[in-house]
Each structure stands twice: as structure tokens, then as C-alpha cells.
């Protein structure tokens, strides 16, 4: 290139994705902790995504549920908490301090201020009262270990108090102190989601006290998070980084400078990798297939997705809010979608047949059979339904 920067083409980006996201056969790992560390974070908005994303990357997925339950609820080596873009993720527990300082502090201050403002407008008690309720609720949670919102309210009845939100507006409603306060405490890194009330696909969780972690300087934490993410997902554009982190562009640029990121050229413009990650990366030994869940960290990893997902496929694979559904991958790109029918059958459809021959179809069928095997009697419906997923199960 005339500017002297190394160019990383689409083929190499797909090779990096296959290896670093543990999707190629030789790159798969043996524990959920290794999966989460490789991806930085697992999307946790839909509880099933965590398990399905792990299972897609384990060398032996048969123990996906047992192993992931162990990591989340017995060993607590993984923790479900708010992170980037005010979204719930599952992180390695060792990352919680970095995530909180880099992305949670600013959001937490905004959430608490919004709660106090809404309560004041409704004539509800003041900040001192709320602080008293908070301390009582945290003390109750410490005694109980884990608890539902209702169980906490039995210990601290003031959590049940309600106030009118947005009075006189079309979206006026009643908010409970407990619901809003627990959300604020989650963003503040004081509480995390514990065991679900039902199976691993349940959307209802108990609450638990967050693991203790040091308070880190924001700039240093942002540098640490960006370094980890670029190691997993680089190269990426500035727009990708701003979107994934939810930071201001000035924060992204400051962190890029602090970690000594190296600029490279991509088909869509300038991208960045770590300073020691400029050399070419050879691809996996053989083509690979994967069935990834809705909101999978790989499918949702970049804002600019044309290098692995053709734009014409998006209407079928995304919901109206931009959430990706279950996807079928062949050798580094999305080629279709999959779903689970009521009888448990895993069905799939190819939307982009380019390069998808008999070898690809056999590999995809094999992955579908493996997925159906470890799911067993469990039925999974994505929290965010997409047009093709709904069509496949109809």
C-alpha cells in the first residue's frame, strides 16, 4: 500500500476469527472459562446464548450445561453482570474490575441520577431514604446468599413501594423501588445475577452480591479491556471499537494510543491491531462449520459485518432492533440460519450458496446433529425472534 501500512484482507480476517474465536476444529477448547476468555465476553441478554455459544466452541460439547453451570454457580469463575453498552454479559470473574471501571462507572452514575430524579418527580422519598433501603437490601442479600426480588422484598418491605413514572405521558407507568434499585446496583457492580429460577434457558434470576474487586482508574481499565478485545477481535475499525465498547470516540482513541495499537488497512478503511499482532496469520488446516446462537459474540462482534455477513442476508437474520438470530457459518462467513423445532429437530437453511458444496453441507449437518445431541430434551426459543428462525420452526 502507498501509505506503508500492512493490508489485512478478508481471508485473513476470517482466519483470525476461526482460530481466535475457537470455531475451527483444531482451535476448540475444553472449558467454558476458556471460551469466555477467548471471546472477552458472552452475551447474556438471552440466557440460552451463553450455553449455546460455549457448546459451539467446546471440543466435547456433551457436558456443556454441567460445565457452564459449574463455572457460573459453583466455582464462580464466570459471572453474569452489566457491561458494555449497558448490556448483560457473562465475563471471566477476573475481568469484573476492568469491565466495571471501563464501562460501568459512567453508566451507573447516570442510572442512579435517573432513579432519584424519577422518584423526586413522583414525590417519593429522597436519596437518604433510598440509601437506607439499599444498605438494608444488600445486608439481606449477604445473609441469604442468593435471593429473588420477592425474597429480598420480604426482608426489606420498602423495596415493594411504587412510584409513578412519566406521569401524564403516553408511557406513564408504575415502577417499584426494588426493580429500579436492583438494576442500579447491578450497573454499579454491587450485585450480579445468580442462579436462574428454572432451567438454564430461564429468563428469571436470583440476585447475589458481586465478587469483590478493586476500584481501578478508568483510563487504565479502558486500555486493558481494549487490549484484550483487540487480541481476540483485531483488526477492527474505530467505528467497531466505539460501537462495541459504548465509549466516546475520544476514549477509544486514548486507549488505542495507550496500548500502542498499530494501524493497518482493511477493505473498508483503517483498522487497528495490537502492536505485536501485525504479522500474517495462517488459516485453519481445514474448512469449518458452526451453528451459532442468536446474539453470539462472534456474529455481534463488529459494527461493520460485511466481511463475514453479506448485507442481503440481514433482513432474514436480524430482528427489527438489530439483534442477530441463530446463524449457520461455513469457513468464516454466515451462509444461513438454523432453528430448533418443537420436536427437538435442528433444522437449517442455506441463504448464500456460494462455496457451499457437499463437503460444507455434510459438515453443517454434523454440527447440527452434535447440537441436537447435547441439547437432548431441552427446547430453545431465542429471546429475539428473527424472520427466518420463525419460518424454520413453523
UniProtKB/TrEMBL annotation:
<dbReference type="Pfam" id="PF06224">
    <property type="entry name" value="AlkZ-like"/>
</dbReference>
<protein>
    <recommendedName>
        <fullName>Winged helix DNA-binding domain-containing protein</fullName>
    </recommendedName>
</protein>
<dbReference type="InterPro" id="IPR009351">
    <property type="entry name" value="AlkZ-like"/>
</dbReference>
